[in-house]
Amino acid sequence: MNDHQSKLSTLCIHGGRRSSQGDSAVVTPIYQTSTFVPDPEDYAKVEAGETADSRFYSRYGNPTVAAVEHRIAALEAADEARLFSSGNAAMHASLMALALPGGHVVAADKLYGGTRAILDHCLTDAGGSVTYVDLDDHEALRAAVTPATRVLVCESIANPTLEVSDIPYLETLAREQGLALVVDATYATPIHQRPITLGADLVVHSASKYYGGHSDLVAGAVAGSREIVSRITTWRMNGGGCCDPHVAFLIDRGIKTLALRMGAHNRGGQALAEFLEGHSRVRRVNYPGLPSFAHHDRARELLKGMGGMVLFSLDGEDDEADILLSRLRLALPAPSLGGVESLVCQPARTSHAKMSEQERLAVGILPGTIRVSVGIEDPGDLIADFEQALAGSVIE
Ligand SMILES: *Cc1c(COP(=O)(O)O)cnc(C)c1O
């Protein structure tokens, strides 16, 4: 069966498998080695810049890492994929490779804090520049594009407010203006959306989240055309942000259950969002699967599942959210997301702590806001946990 005809749940198990792997092992072995005794073929690959598939030195490429990269490329419907030491390393190499020297980036105003830091510090310090814009404000978006603009960057689903990017519109604009469209698809995963099939040039992931899926590793991934990925691979090789083979093995193990896990995250996310929306202490719930959500129709059009991320605001201040978090028994108060266990955090205390309350309001984060990464526990148990915590944390 050809990768292009297979369903995603099949690709999670068999995607990118090479009959030429020359190995009878059913599971990709861990090549825990820094270096190799190269063949003439490997020397030729390194010389031609095709380092990722070479057996030469593990900063250049490693067979375990390469096997996972082939699987991710199949899942993302991309020519090539590369793993990195973190999601930030993947985004950093991508933006540097595509925007430098001297280029300008147009970025969504709702963006993961780490990506913003790359744009505000690394890119700007290296002579590039950035403009943030509300991507739904088409006039402002078009006005932000200058002759120096090379990249348009967004998230398929924004962290933490869950707005859904209109990738078909952004793709049209990117084509028209000759920009590379870069989509951080960490929240959606290829199970819910494959941005490459919608015209994106590059997909970036924090594999620390759903791809890995068990909160036990930090890694990143990119997927795209051979030409773009090759430019980014040079940055990986020189910058040194390669993925360790043992971490790659864990990502591969995680990917095998990705479709299964996303189904459970969807069910739990929908159930918890509906429960919270009906609770008297909750002022607002952001969840793409709720008809009350501003981008509900767009989510239904562009996403195959609504996911496990839920944002809600208590009818109260941040200290009431602190108490609620301390009363939860199943959901753990920790940053990060996308694992099998439910995690809760307050953007005002974590990812958006550096902003003023005014600035947070401008990006849609009200006081008393909590982000939930819904795990794969029984949805009824999770709802019961939130019910008891909400009942017991009222400040009199
Ligand atoms: C976590 C995250 C990142 C950064 O990934 P790391 O693996 O933590 O470096 C990038 N984008 C999004 C949307 C994230 O949630």
What do these coordinates show?
With 396 residues, this protein is an alpha/beta fold. The protein has 2 domains: 3-255, Aspartate Aminotransferase, domain 2 (3-Layer(aba) Sandwich), CATH 3.40.640.10; 259-391, Aspartate Aminotransferase, domain 1, CATH 3.90.1150. Helices cover 40% and strands 15% of the residues. The chain has 15 helices and 12 strands. The chain has helices spanning 8-14, 40-47, 63-76, 87-99, 113-125, 138-144, 167-177, 189-192, 226-239, 245-255, 258-277, 296-302, 318-327, 357-362, 379-392, and strands spanning 80-84, 104-108, 129-133, 149-155, 180-184, 202-206, 220-224, 282-286, 309-314, 332-333, 343-345, 369-373. It has a 7-stranded mixed beta sheet with strand order 1-7-6-5-4-2-3, with helices on both faces. A 5-stranded mixed beta sheet has the order 8-9-12-11-10. α5 links the parallel β2 (104-108) and β3 (129-133). α11 (258-277) packs parallel to α15 (379-392). The chain is globular, with a radius of gyration of 21 Å. The mean pLDDT is 95. The structure holds pyridoxal-5'-phosphate. Pyridoxal-5'-phosphate (PLP) is lined by residues 86-88, 112, 114-115, 155, 159, 184, 186, 206, 208-209, 218, 220.
